[in-house]
Amino acid sequence: MADIFDRLLKNSGPLGQHRERAHGYFAFPKLEGEIGSKMMFRGKEMIVWSLNNYLGLANHPEVRKADTEGTATYGLAAPMGARMMSGNTDLHEQLEAELAAFVMKEDAILMNYGYQGIMSAIDAICGRHDVVVYDAECHACIIDGLRMLPGHRFVYKHNDVADCEKQLQRAQALIEKQQLGGILVITEGVFGMAGDQGRLKEIAELKSKFFFRMLVDDAHGFGTLGKTGAGAGEEQGCQDGIDLYFSTFAKSMASIGAFMAGPKKIIDFIRYNIRSQIFAKSLPLPFVVGNLKRLELLKTQPILKDTLWKNALSLQKGLKERGFDIGKTDSVVTPVYMKGGVEEATAMVMDLRENYKIFCSIVVYPVIPKGHIIYRLIPTAVHNQEEIDLTLKAFSETKEKLDAGVYKVSEIPDMANKS
Ligand SMILES: Cc1ncc(COP(=O)(O)O)c(C=O)c1O
Known about the structure:
- The chain is of the alpha/beta class.
- It has two domains: 11-54 and 302-403, Aspartate Aminotransferase, domain 1; 60-300, 3-Layer(aba) Sandwich (Aspartate Aminotransferase, domain 2).
- The protein has 15 helices and 14 strands.
- It has helices at residues 4-10, 19-22, 61-74, 90-102, 114-125, 140-147, 161-178, 200-205, 232-236, 264-273, 275-278, 285-300, 302-321, 342-356, 385-403, and strands at residues 31-32, 38-41, 44-48, 107-111, 131-135, 152-156, 183-188, 213-217, 244-248, 258-262, 334-339, 358-359, 361-363, 372-377.
- The strands form three sheets. It has a seven-stranded mixed β-sheet with strand order 4-10-9-8-7-5-6, sandwiched between helices.
- α5 packs parallel to α6.
- The longest helix is centred in the last third of the chain and has 20 residues, at 302-321.
- The protein is globular, with a radius of gyration of 22 Å.
- It starts with a helix and ends in a 16-residue tail after the last helix.
- Bound molecules: pyridoxal-5'-phosphate (PLP).
């Protein structure tokens, strides 16, 4: 019989294989100091483009005050128990009502984390005769939710509405054969890696041909898109077509928790059937108080979203003018596509950090195909033009070096923490 631990030690996984040289630098880096556009990394101050602190709420003075007061008043313990048993409060219900009103739905349910929340919601909603049709690039939490699905699922090519229609036809045929079940389409408001918005309006319009319900994970659209910040559905004028709207608080709200909003009776069904909330402790009150304050600022301070977009558009325009390929983004998420191996990518990132004091995240094989590199830049409302200009200059110079082969190294630079 094999020892499971032996197997794990022999193959540490696609990313884990680089651990010895990467840990603490390319993977698991520690950013220190106040959250903002500049933070400390290994003792040096860097311009940071890696945080989903879109609106700069992470350390907004009013947010810090609410977080502090919430903790002083309630501590992390309160309330004890699951919402259903002993962990419900007026403040939880107030936050749910405010979120629902903000995203123009009847009701909302809070979740402790986005990842387990959406997984568990999919589990609660779908039965064994139901069929899910979903975008190929949906986030890992949706894919993991679908692993629990007892029914069938059909994937459509990323953002390809014609293929979505084809998969809906397959789903419809299967349901007609079964004579049981319904269809749930799952997609995202903004795809977090490439920054392209899900084609929500066109997909919702397919309801004129097929009968289905639509669930949208708008983690990156909530607070950043739409006239009021209510997200990608508002931006595209199709919020009504979204039956279940989901967002985490981990991005523009710079917090912890998530919510799903929709028709009152359906949210009530989820409330009484979502295992990750029924069998888990309620979101602690300091988070609820902090999230109420964040939502208030998100609604009442449009300047935050406007500044975010000013910065994002300036960064994206500057990159395009310098000949960089930023793909199809139509959100503030700013990918920069380049060609090169994993080793080259890490050498370039090291140069950016050590010599240009720019900290950004890279995505390489096996997350994306071999030979490709994506820099993923997240502009925020707290960046400024000087930081954007310095970053653009650094990108131009390092790209020239990349093209000239300066970063061709045989191994990932050994930058691991040695303790
Ligand atoms: C699209 C999307 N959905 C869900 C999540 C998970 O949310 P949370 O961090 O609250 O678990 C993330 C990442 O945070 C995400 O990008």
